[in-house]
Amino acid sequence: MDSTLLAQYALAGLVIGAIYCLMAVGITFIYSVVRMINWAMGEFYMIGGYVQYLLIESWLGPQHWYLALPLAACSVALLGMGVQRVLLRPMFTGTLERLDEYATIVTIALTVLLRNLAIVIFGPYQFSPPDYANPVQLGPLPLNGSRFVAFVGAVVLLALFAFVIRRTWFGLALRAVAQNRLGAVAAGINLGRIDMLAFGIGVGLAGAAGALLAPVFLVFPQSGALSTVKGFEIIVIGGLGSLPGAIAGGLLLGLVESLGSVLLSPSFRDVYGFGALLLILVLRPTGLWGERAREA
Amino acid sequence: MKRSAAAAGTGLVAAALLPLVLGPYHVHVLTVALYYVVLASSWNLLAGYTGLFSLAHHVFAGIGAYTSALLVIHTGVPIPAGVAAGAAVACAAGFALGSVTLRLRMLYLALATWAFAESTRVAVSMEYGITRGDLGLAVPTLFRGPSPTPYYELFLACAAAAVAGMVWLLRSPIGYRIRAIRDDEGAARAAGINTVRWKRFAFAAASGAAGAAGALYGHYIGLLSPVSMQFDEMALIIIMVILGGQRTIAGPVIGAVSVEVVSEGLRAYGQIRMVIFALLVLGLMRLYPPGLVGLLRAAAARLPRGGVAASATNSAP
Questions:
Q1: Structure ipTM over 0.90, yes or no
Q2: Separation CA B122–CA B135 (nearest Å)
Q3: Residues of chain A found within 8 Å of residue B279, distances taken between Cβ atoms
Q4: Between chain A and chain B, how many beta carbons pairs sit less than 8 Å apart?
Q5: Is pLDDT above 70 for B285?
Q6: What domains can be seen in chain A, in order of their start residue?
Q7: Residues of chain B contacting residue A293, judged by C-beta atoms under 8 Å apart
Q8: What CA–CA distance (Å, rounded) separates B228 from B131?
Q9: Which of A65, A67, B204, B264 has the CA that lies 20 to 30 A from B221?
């Protein structure tokens, strides 16, 4: 195997892996703050893709793609905040008491709703906005322009996210709620608002991933399912609630898929991630970072 | 307990006689509902009672169905032998998945099993040389003739066997062991329960039941495709169990029948039917968070010692 070609595939894998990181970070973040798993994550990813496609095709045009990306991510975040406010808030019956099964059934019903709504509105067709960026040359390796934009966008978003969480008052409030809800209330933090914003930011990351990947992968109603699964595979590999785990897991998954498809067979690309997960479960049952008890 | 057994027996006889008064279409709908009763009840054993929130249950039904269909087509064994083999393979696959995920709990388990489910679905649709992929695999049917009535009686027997098996299991020492594991695994181990063995057992038993039901369902419908392994199918099972009431015997039965009948009744709306269905579920949960099970409990509280649903719901430990 030609080493340049191998490096080429490894690079492509890392680029996609950075996008998977966005999904995994969103899942982990919502879990840490709002204490629920959002099963509909992939559907918000799908909506992000559709919004991006519609904005570029029917309004902004391919030359203004850099405007479409933040618009798509923000509209998905707004939708997420609305969903949290209207549908998910009754999950908390008190400050701490919650109905565990409520969030599960609501977000699972939401996957069915959004996916079928997409089929009703857009049909089962596959869309893709035109490639909007020029190919770039990274040293000896050429890279598709849209993939490069996706990679840079994902890195910028992750950096922004880390900055907000670590350095701002708002991030402090989020971390406080994640650590101790009761203590956060005592410190005067408005839990309802934090929950809503956290959910919005989390699904906004998924929407951004969908928008960034719209020209690379196709946009269609079932596109969310696989991306949710990949986000979850990363969580099992890297650990729930761990930001470095989500990023390391995402890059690893992208690499495994890309190298698997060139070394083995490309049609099973979506299975290699599970293979890696099985391997990690068998060899290191406590996950990459070795938590002792994986109870969440 | 005697009362509820008698009530269940009466209900079973009445259900067996239903095809005499219903047309073939309605019998077909109820047959499909009974298939889901088996899936929902066995998932309830796994997720509700043992606390193993698996998201691969629909795939075990698919594994059973494909195993049986491929065996019957390629080796010509009789269909009942194929169904038995399908159940055995699903059981073994469940045991293997249960073994790999022994250390995972709650959400990690859900995530890992979902990854297994999606990977299996992709593998089935990609290996089209064997499974014919998305084209669908034509499967020989079990009975001759188009009437759904024999299938209905067969699935009624299966559903009754699954529910009776659940009741027996939960009253036996095994039932106490798996509930102890759900409540507190560490304490269960300290009390001398072999948690590894019983968690694997729950996985294998529930998957075997799903595999048998899936294999029979394949030989009823006559066509298999990877679509039945999509997450929508699992979502349906979860909605059935949680709406009907987790950790009750009657809950999954009521949930499966009512969800299947409602979603079938919406078929007239065509493409938009699943949207309406999801909105109904969301509306019910939003306006009344305790769900269908809370509604039934409230009704049971109003009617002291009345109704099959009421006594069965309350007798569940």
A1: no
A2: 14
A3: 113
A4: 127
A5: yes
A6: 3-283 (1.10.3470)
A7: 105
A8: 13
A9: B204
Q: What is the radius of gyration, based on Cα positions, of chain A?
A: 19
- Contact of B135 with chain A, judged by CB distance below 8 Å, is answered with no
Does residue A296 carry a pLDDT above 50? no
DSSP-derived letter for residue B18 is G
Instruction: Give A218's DSSP letter.
Output: P
Q: Is B101 on the interface with A (CB under 8 A)?
A: yes
Cβ pair A271:B119 closer than 8 A: yes
Q: Which of B52, B113, B119, B199 is the best residue to mutate to test the A interface, defined by the most A CB atoms within 10 Å of its own CB?
A: B119
Compute the 3-state secondary structure of chain B and give helix, strand, coil in percent, each to the nearest 5: 80, 0, 15
**CA B124/CA B149 separation, integer angstroms:** 31
Looking at the complex, does the CB of residue B289 fall below 8 Å from at least one CB of chain A?
yes
What is residue A95's predicted lDDT score, i.e. its pLDDT?
Answer: 67
- Answer yes or no: is pLDDT of B297 > 90: no
- Span between the terminal Cα atoms of chain B, in Å: 12
Triad B59, B64, B70: Cα angle to 5°? 120
The listed range with the strongest mean pLDDT (A43-52, A87-96, B266-275, B281-290) is: A43-52
Say if residue B93's pLDDT is above 90: yes
**Interchain CB contact of B286 with A (< 8 Å):** yes
pLDDT tens-place string over residues B13-43: 888 778 878 888 888 888 999 999 999 999 9
Query: B122 CA to chain A: closest CA distance, Å?
Result: 7
CB atoms within 10 A of CB B85: 20
